[in-house]
Design goal:
Layout: E1 2-3, E2 8-10, E3 13-17, E4 24-32, E5 38-44, E6 50-53, E7 56-59, E8 63-71, E9 86-93, E10 116-126, H1 157-212, H2 218-237
Parallel strand pairs: 3-10
Antiparallel strand pairs: 1-2, 2-4, 4-8, 5-7, 5-9, 6-8, 9-10
Helix pairs in contact: 1-2
Keywords: Membrane, Transmembrane, Transmembrane helix
Protein name: Membrane trafficking regulatory protein
Family: Belongs to the VAMP-associated protein (VAP) (TC 9.B.17) family.
Amino acid sequence: MSNGDLLQIDPIELQFPFELKKQIACSLQLSNKSDNHVAFKVKTTNPKKYCVRPNTGVVSPHSTCDVTVTMQAQKEAPPDLQCKDKFLLQSVVASPGASAKDITPELFNKESGNHIEECKLRVSYVPPPRPPSPVREGSDEGSSPRASLSDNGTVHASEYNSVSRTHAEPQDNSSEEKSLISRLSEEKDSAIQQYNKLQRELELLKRERKKNKSGIPLIYVIIVGLVGAILGYLLKRT
């Protein structure tokens, strides 16, 4: 910050975060602490490289004015980011009520007897700010699932239900499998008991046949065959 008799200039060093092929802007603030209107003019040693808006103007008493200096896009970087460019800001007391249209080259002519205040501004290039590191996807792997909280600490119901379903589904599947296995086991035991019962009845019929020398009813043979087929099918499923 430069504290002159006419204008206070902040900053006195123009810093540009240098990037190739990109326009970069830097701002100056001119503060008039006096009771006079102060005219200013900005000059640079490299006018083709920089654009100054406004490059001339009038700062009213006890007010401020912002000046934007834009560096044109550069195709190559200087060695070690060193810059030799300089700016010169001239200020002079203007007539009361003066505006930018009242500024003439003679106003900043020292030979005219005007008291001209000058401030040299340096230029420096600094590395551009680094972008924030992206959050790696899956960084929360291995951590236990949590329901997110709102600003007031309330758990979002949709997320809580999603987590609950995730934990509940394996238990439901396990329960269904156990129920199916239990039912199949019961059917198998029932079929075995029925088969054994028919076998006993068949043995009784054979004994009766020996006694009576009569044939075994065809219906019993068919039933025994069907039960045997059903039992074989159930044994394969389990």
